[in-house]
Structures are given as structure tokens and as C-alpha cells.
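Data availability (excerpt). All sequences and predicted C-alpha cell strings are deposited with the supplementary files. A representative entry, Bacteriophage protein, is shown inline so that the format can be inspected without opening the archive.
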Amino acid sequence: MTAWADILAANTGDPWKAFKTLEREADQVRAQHHAFRRAKPLIRLWMNDPDGDAGLVYVGRVDYDDTIRGAFPFKNNTVSQGVLELRDDHYLAVWLKQLPNNPELKKNVVITVDFYGDQKRWSGLLDKWTIKSKDHVKYLEVTFNDDLAFLQYLLCPPNPALPIPVLQFPRIFALAGPARWAISALIFINLWRVQSSIWSLPDDPFDLESWDDAIDWSDWQCHVKASPWLLDDSSLWTFLSSRMNPVDSVIADSLDDAQLTLTYRRILTDDGETADGLIGVPGGNVKNGALVFEVVDNSNATALEGTFFEGTILDGFVRSVMVYGGGFVEDSLNVVSGDQTLAPDEYYRSGWLATMAKQPWLVIRDNEWTPIESSDLSWGPAKNVAVVVGGDNPAADAIAKLIIETTGNLLGWLLLGGFSGAGGIAADVIMPFIVGTIAAWLHWKNTGRATQLGWVHYWELYQQGAENNSWSLAALSALRGGFLVGRAETVHLMALHDSWIIPGLHIDIGQRLGSTVLSKGVEHIIWVNQLEEMTCAWDNTSSPAPMSWVLKAGKSERAQSIGERMARLAKKMSEALNNVGVQLIQS
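C-alpha cell line:
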């Protein structure tokens, strides 16, 4: 940022000329921001190289004005679907329709949608296309799954370093550490497993270059960006475990608990981009279209200096620090009185637009002068005050069996003329009736929540995740998960059009923002939540709707429909059954 003294000196000390110079610079910045808001997204399709070489090949560009409709949502740690509608005779629509019957082409198609130049990018893999008809006019609807879906199709075996069909020891993969480091390490280990071709043939055994993928990672299609946790990782500690589960489900609770965000970006070397900070890829020279994951702390919720969790219009944001107590299961917020935290240096840098996690700045006010088309705020109090986890305790069962065998052997030796096998017989008879009954459950009550809710409240909730051992780190994680599911929730849904706010630049997924609601009784409150979803959508039909953004701040488990909850439960049940060797056969 140029100092006033420098501007004054450059204008021969004339304050009026210096002011006009400053005004011109400000107008240039306003014009740049206006151009960002008016910029149309760059939509491009890419395909795999028909020759089998690594890297994506450019297919073509879809002009924004030549689309019918489009919607591309960014969601926090959740896979989303982008939809693009094209006229039936569009050249890329014709190409997509011919794809199934063209043996020379690879079938997977990647889309990239760039906003504000290339500063914010949505990318995903083709899910399906559908030929539709409306008013006797045909058009093509193309659906893409965003690139977080790759982690749904990446398993975490008990030992990623061993061949899956031959040997998997130990029975469970377990990893503890700071959440950012642990999640990044788990993703990296399994990316290395599927892309290094150590225990399996490469996709093309006759391509000699593909045999060195274990040491030359520049050919990989997916990477993860991380750094040693001893250097800069102050995130909440977590425990990850898996038998043979998808990576996305293994890391989901840890991401939520530590309020971290898993980001992704496809590196387009055709545009001159490189991927800095990757292990094993000198200079970041990856193949065109390589996918890079990174776990980032956009919320700063668990950092030592704290962040903003609430505020009022009169007092502004209030800095609080999250404090853990009650066996690391319960958490509370301590307000920092006399906050002396300095504003990040980035906020003083000319051209800086983003939000720093430790001191968010963006507040969207709901009044007649702001461009909020619609605004819905919902709040719900906490639910359960206690959580039960567990269902088994191998250590207690082993001790009980030892006591039965020892007692039975002693009684048999004393009463049955030296017969010492009575204990084993008794254990075989008795143990089936008491397995999973002794110290098999863990019950925890959040007294602070109960006091806050009052005399009338819901009681308890059973949380999955510690069925194998009630006295384990997994049980601790499950207890926290049970309290998080029933926590108080605030969700603010805002639709913005032609706003001074630039989603993706001013604010991004996982970062905190404040918002107000012009409603009697709460008009003075600043609601502070993580940005969970932002969707860019447009409609170029006969009743056109210009490109606009819908922002959703705050997460609500209550918003899930019965079908969504049942689907989520069925997925967990299937994974649990697979862990004990039972395979569900789906028709």
C-alpha cells in the first residue's frame, strides 16, 4: 500500500494533486472489482489422451452465453454435482453424445469452470449426460461430480504397504496426530498405494515410463499438498482408523471436529500453472490436469490465538478461544478480554481480497441498501445432553475369561479330585453369555449443556464408531461426534446478485463470515458461521436469470431429509458389516 507521504512527494507536495492521484488509483481498484463481478466463467472440457499418455487433452470451450443453464456448487468437505445444459446441436454436445460409440476415445471427461480468471476453479468428472425434451425442443443435460468424489473411490486398507489379496496385517489401520497432518498422511499413503504400481501392474504394462511411478511422482493423476506437522500444524489432534473403508468416510468426522476444509484444484500446465509444495515433484511440474488435494484451516477454531465466533453491531466481532474440558469430550468458548491481536499484515497489502482465518472481516448486512435478494436464518437449540458409545470390551472379556478359568480350575482341582480342566469347560459355557456385557459401554453426560437447556431436555444418543472397543481413542472420537450431532445450530442462507461481495475471492469455503438479519429482536446480532456452501448458477432461457451466488453459512444436520439420513445410515452399516467380513449383495 502506497504511503500518503510517497504520493505527496510524487506530486511536488501539492495535496490536491496527490488526492486526485489517490482517487485515480482507487477508481482503478473499483473498476477491477467491478470487472471481477461481471466476468463470465470460463467453461472448458478435457479428455484423457487417446494415446494413453499421462495428462489431460483440451477438447473445447463452452461459451457462457451459449449455455441454457448452469449450476456449480462449492461445498465444505462434501461432494457436489455440477450441471450444465447445452443445446442439442452444440458441437460439444454432439461430441459427448458420440463418446460411447467411439472406440478411439477414452470415456472419462473432465470439466473446469474458472471464475475471476483462474482464481477460483470448479472441476469434476463426467457422471452422465441425458438427452431431454421440453416444449418439443431437445437439449443435453450434462452432470459432473466434483473432484472430491475421487476420495469416495479410494479405500484405506489395514496396511496400505502390503498387497491387499495376499496379506493385511494388522487388522486395523490406525493413525493419531494433528488433524491436518493425519488426514494428509492418510490420503498420501493411499494415493501412493494405488499409483505406484508396487504390488500390481501399471495400467499400461508396455509403457516403460509407467513402471517408475513409485519414485517418479510427476506422472500421478492425484497429489496431496502437506508439510511436516512439527513445523506449522496446530490443529486439533485426532485418531483415524479403517478396516477397508472409503477415505472420505474415514476422515469426515475429523474434518468436521477440527473445522478443517479439504480443498482441491486441477493444475492446468497448458495455462502455465505449476503445483508448488508437492513432495516428490521437483518444481511442481505435474502433468496437465493433475489433481492436488490440500487440507487447510480456514476457520482457526482450535488455534491458540482463537478467532471470531460471535459479535454485535455495536461492539463488533468478539474474539474467543475454544477450550476443551471433561476428558477432551466437551468444549466451550472463552472470550478474550482486552483483545490485543494485531490485524494480519495481508490486510494492509494492496490488492489483497481474501479472508485470514484468525481475523475474519466480512460482514453481510441485511438492509435496504445491500444486494441480498433473499435471506433465511434458522436456529435450533442443542438436543441430547448425554452420549453412549461402545458395545464391546475385549480387555474386560479377557479378564473375565481368565477369572472363570482360574476359579474353575481351582474348584475342579479341590472338589473333583485334581481335575484341572473344569475352568476351560466353564469358560466355554459361560463366556458366550457375558461377552460384550462387562464395561462394554461408555456413557458421558455434558452437564454444561444440560444446565444451559434447563429442566426439560432430551436425554441421550447412541453414537456409532466404537463398537469394537468402548475404552479406546475411537470411543473418545465417537463421544465428541455424538455431541457434535446434537449441538445447537445456526444456518443463514443468502442469495446475492450484483453484490460488492465477490464469493471465492473475499470469502471461500470453510472461512468465517458474519451476517445480520433485519428482523425485530435480532437486528443487532452478528451471526458468525463457517461458509459451508456457495453455488454459482445462471439461466439463459426465455426468462433469464443472470449469474448469481447463493451462500450458506452454518451446518445443519436437521436439514437432512429422512431419505438422506437413511442413506447415510445404510452406508455406515455396509461399511461396518464389511469390517467383519460380511458382504452385502445388492441387486
